[in-house]
Amino acid sequence: MNNAINQPQTILVLGGNSDIARAIVGELSSPALKTVVLACRNAASADTTGFANHVQVATVTFDATDHAAHAPMIEAVAAEHGDLDVVIQAFGQLGLDVADDPVAAAQLATVNYSGAVSSGLAVAAQLRKQGHGTLVVLSSVAGVRTRASNFVYGSTKAGQDAFATGLGHSLHGSGANVMTVRPGFVRSSMTEGMDEAPFTIDASVVAEAVASGLKKGSSVVWAPAKLRGVFGLLKYAPDFVWRKLDN
Questions:
Q1: How far is Cα 182 from Cα 8, in angstroms, rounded to an integer?
Q2: Cα–Cα nearest to 97, from 105, 106, 89
Q3: From 62, 91, 113, 153, active-site residue
Q4: How much is the average pLDDT of 159-174?
Q5: pTM for this one?
Q6: Which of 46, 31, 44, 3 minimizes the C-alpha distance to 12?
Q7: 94, CA 20 to 30 Å: which among 32, 53, 160, 168?
Q8: Across residues 34-52, what is the average pLDDT?
């Protein structure tokens, strides 16, 4: 359970090699943090370095497409390490070249959306049982309004975002919470080599926004914060303008 000044003691990362998630863990790190559990498709591939010396780092196997395994895995982590204070849903794929491949597009949707649903519900059940804890869902501004250049990916993030916000409403009054995070383009190993978009940020900016949002009890966080206003306007831009912006 979070300590008296709301610092987490146990953090679970679904997608344990995510640069953004690791930055978030670093931002949330304090003397109170005891355990970080990195959940990866191949647990042996998890990078367990870079964490504070006093933190126990454990690894578990997590495959976003193995929906039946999600609830047992969450239950096993909680049984071994205690209540989960923060769970970061950070797995996902970009899938920039799947628009002409129905099978690859469906596989992308299975990872980014179906995996988010099954793991999110499993986490919610545990947090509800505990009566506390926050699921941090890394969504994307790509889901606010999908673009022709990455509409399959954008649609998966739109689904994940809608699921996360609805799940948060369903947990109201339980003591558990969901915080949906909508970053713009983030410099990371996933985006390395890609052309940067306006308002590009480092993972540390997302981490700071998440930490601030957790302290405030926010249900939605944008990173950088100015994107809230930008997409508040772009969401209603005429289609011909939106298409032009995507060129």
A1: 22
A2: 105
A3: 153
A4: 97
A5: 0.94
A6: 46
A7: 168
A8: 92
Residue 162: is its pLDDT beyond 90? Answer: yes
Q: Which two tokens stand for residue 241?
A: 């303008």
End-to-end alpha carbon distance in the chain: 48
Partners of 89 in the β-ladder:
14, 137
Classify 235 as helix, strand or coil: coil
Measured in whole angstroms, the distance separating CA 243 from the mean position of its chain's CA atoms is: 28
Contact 32, 52 (CB under 8 A): no
Cα distance between residue 46 and residue 49, in whole Å: 9
236 is catalytic: no
Asked if residue 210 lies in contact with residue 136, where contact means CB atoms within 8 angstroms, the answer is yes
Task: List pLDDT tens digits, range 137-150.
Answer: 999 999 998 888 89
d(CA 70, CA 207): 25
133 burial (CB, 10 Å; 0-12 / 13-18 / 19+) is buried
Strand partners, 14: 39, 89
Instruction: Give yes or no for a contact between 142 and 184, defined as CB atoms under 8 angstroms apart.
Output: no
CA 191/CA 94 separation, integer angstroms: 9
Q: Decide: 51 and 57 in contact? Cβ < 8 Å.
A: yes
Q: Coil, helix or strand for 206? A: helix
